[in-house]
Amino acid sequence: MTADGSTNGWTGEAISFLRQNIPLALRDDGWEHACSSGDQMGCAALVALGQATETDWGAVPRKDARLPDPLPRWDDIATTVVGLAWQRRAVDFRSADGSVWVPPYRQADGGLRHAESPPPSPNIAAGHGLGPARAVPGFLLVLKALGLVDGAGWAAPAEAVLWRVQPRAWALDVTGDARFAEAVARTVATTPDAIRREIGRQVTISDDDVNAALAKAEAWRREFRERTGHGPEFRARTRAEMRLDVALGREDRLDWLFYRGWRLPEGWLTPAEKSRALEIFHDPLARAMRGAVVARLFPGNPVSEAEAARE
Predict the structure, then answer these.
(1) Residues 89-116: pLDDT tens digits?
(2) Does residue 14 contact residue 45 with C-beta atoms inside 8 Å?
(3) What's the confidence (pLDDT) of residue 111?
(4) Which pLDDT value is given to residue 236?
(5) What pLDDT shows up at residue 114?
């Protein structure tokens, strides 16, 4: 598996796709993400590619737009583009037999779909551990420019990108892959001391931490009563429940350590490498690696236990 893609010609197609598929701002030039994750990361990608300036609500085009040197990470841009395309239905990930995948909660009304016209067949064949897909013609060209599709099927570099998207239709068992286990062992062995200390700090939950969280929750309830004249329609959290809440909050902070500073296959990024990375905050691969690494570094820690209890 590799995270390196083609360095020739992909930037133009990626920029064009992002420009055309992030919602245009209503109040000004540029693009507005409306706190939609795919659009947020799309705006960040345009900024990283030197095409836009970040705003509180999205991004505005740069008059002096130019590609940076060095470029942002190819795999981060590719992951962002594929995620946005999925959100815009420019790509449809299919079941192994090529059929349209139906979420379990909608399978009960499947009979209603029998009268519909059959969907077009996949135009991207399964391969490299990935399932089939159907891309609209324009986006198929983008995928080829990014080096994700070769001929009529997925190219080898696509695996590193799609592991970070993990379409439900494919039911990828990433954590069961031997390469994931090898990456866990390598990441644990090479964790820098500063990161190890930060992980240790986050997985340590003291009584003072729980007390502070309880006090904050009670202050919110009191402010709510004063503002509305009645209390919120739910009971106060117990100490055990609040300890679990604190643990889940720490889980999010730990996720961000991996979103910002870890990639497959490299592992922990150097400061120079981190400067080229995008903060892709919906990355199931990074999240799974965080869970495995934290549990190995600090066995029996409350954050890992809370995550296991939730699952």
Answers:
(1) 999 999 999 998 777 655 555 544 544 5
(2) yes
(3) 46
(4) 76
(5) 46
**Are the C-beta atoms of 290 and 281 separated by less than 8 Å?**
no
Structure tokens at 29: 């030039």
> Do 125 and 152 form a contact (C-beta atoms < 8 A)?
yes
Separation in Å, CA 82 to CA 63, 66, 157, 259: 27, 23, 13, 17
The residue type found at 27 is R
Beta-bridge partners for 130: 127
Q: Which residue type, as a one-letter code, is found at position 161? A: V
Return the amino acid letter for 28: D
- Cα–Cα distance measured from residue 71 to residue 1, given in angstroms and rounded to the nearest whole number: 21
> What parts of the chain have a pLDDT lower than 50?
6-7, 111-112, 114-115
Rounded distance, CA 48 to CA 248, Å? 31
CA distance 7 to 11: 8
Cα distance between residue 4 and residue 12, in whole Å: 17
With b meaning 16 or more CB within 10 Å and e meaning fewer, what string describes 20-58? ebbeebeeeebbbbeeeebbbbbbbbbbbbbbbeebebb
Burial of 76 (0-12, 13-18, 19+ CB in 10 A): buried
Of 199, 173, 201, 176, nearest to 188 (Cα)?
199
Kindly state the DSSP code that residue 228 receives in the 8-state scheme: H
